[in-house]
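Supplementary Text 2. Reproducibility record for the structural model of the 119-residue chain.

All settings were left at their defaults, and a single model was retained for analysis rather than an ensemble. We include the record here because the model underlies the residue-level annotations in Supplementary Table 4.
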Amino acid sequence: MNKLFVALPIAALMAAPALGQTQWVELQDNVQVSQFGSTVDQIEDWDLYDAGGQKIGEIEAVLGSDGALASALVVDFDNAASFVDGDVIVPIDQFTWEANRLSLNIDQAGAQQLELWND
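Retained model, structure tokens:
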């Protein structure tokens, strides 16, 4: 009985990293992204701005855990923005679409913690 109580927590710890990983799928151009009222094709290459209104990058791709629902955007940060070197996966709830402008709701430190996209 004691072995069972020890084995269960160890098994849960071993499974934890696999649970946190998402298998990303790049959405097709015609998929509607309800958060922005636009298709994937329209969103790709949108400029991205920080809270101060400075352009910090652009959208490279729209991702989801399946091919039908957007849950993240891939951002290519400008070199001058000092965010991240490379394409980064940012959860879709970290963006604001207002006055025909897409803004990022996290700072450089937050962006450094995000997953890189290797397409």
